[in-house]
Amino acid sequence: MSGVKRKRNVLNVKHKLEILQKLDNAVSASTDAEEELHEGNAISHSAALQSVETLLDYMGRRGFDYGDITAVRQICVDIRQEMNKQQKQRRITDFLKQ
Fold this sequence. Notes:
- The chain has one domain (2-97).
- Helices cover 77% and strands 0% of the residues.
- It is built from 4 helices and no strands.
- The N and C termini lie far apart (63 Å).
- This is HTH psq-type domain-containing protein.
C-alpha cells in the first residue's frame, strides 16, 4: 500500500462556498417545523453544526488538504462554544425567573 498515492482535491473559495450553500439548503429543507417556528428565519446552531460536520465528513472522504479540514474543524468548535454560551445564558435566565 505504500505505493498508493491519494489525489488531493483543492478547492478555491468560490467552490467551497458553493458546497456550503448546497449543504445549508439541504439541512434547511430537512429541519423540523417546530424548530423553524422557534428560530424564525435564522438557522439554528444545531442545524449549522450538522451542516459543517457533513462538510467535514465529505472533505475527509475526498482527501482534501489538511489545512482546509482543520479550518472546518475550527468552525465546529466555534459553533459548539456558541451553543454552550446560549445554554449557560438560558440557565441563568431560568434561575433568575424563579
